[in-house]
Amino acid sequence: MAFDPVLAERIRAHFAGRPEISERRMFGGVAFLHHGNLCCGVVRQRLMARVGPDQYLDALGLPHASEMDFTGRPLRGMVYVGPEGCGTGAELAAWLDRCESFVAELPPK
């Protein structure tokens, strides 16, 4: 299994009925885009969260968050959240809202 399908389905349910959200396979997992801008995704068993450079250090201070080092170097503005950090609906929603807050300010692609 390349990515956690249950986590992906929970994200789909969160964004259900939102035409500005699309889904695309990338990073060996699945990504969710807001008006074409990467918002979040699932890589293996972890949530991939785009929080932006201004919120990056704060996000890293949250439980179960770690640097996203997909390329071998940390990607500033992107974090991984382990399964324990988004186990409940409220925890996942808080992360997804944080991601959407950042990408909503970006121009559509």
Q: From N to C, what is the helix and strand string?
A: HEEEEHEEH
What portion of residues is helical? 25-40%
Low-confidence stretches: none
**Fourth CATH level, the homologous superfamily:** YgaC/TfoX-N like chaperone
Strand content: 25-35%
Structural class: alpha+beta
Predict the CATH topology.
Yope Regulator, Chain: A
Q: Give the mean pLDDT.
A: 95
Number of helices: 3
| CATH class identity | Alpha Beta
Termini, distance in Å?
A: 30 Å
- Specify the biggest β-sheet: 6 strands, antiparallel
Any idea what the shape is? Answer: globular
**How big is the Rg?**
13 Å
**CATH architecture verdict:** 2-Layer Sandwich
Q: What is the domain total for the residues?
A: 1
Total beta strand runs: 6
Widest beta sheet: strand line-up: 1-2-3-4-6-5
Give the SSE layout.
Layout: H1 5-14, E1 21-26, E2 29-34, E3 37-43, E4 46-50, H2 56-60, E5 65-67, E6 78-81, H3 89-103
Antiparallel strand pairs: 1-2, 2-3, 3-4, 4-6, 5-6
Write a short abstract of this structure.
This protein is of the alpha+beta class.
How does this model look, in words?
There is one protein chain. The protein has 109 residues and is α+β, with helices and mostly antiparallel strands. It has one domain: 2-Layer Sandwich (Yope Regulator, Chain: A), CATH 3.30.1460. The chain has three helices and six strands, in the order H-E-E-E-E-H-E-E-H.
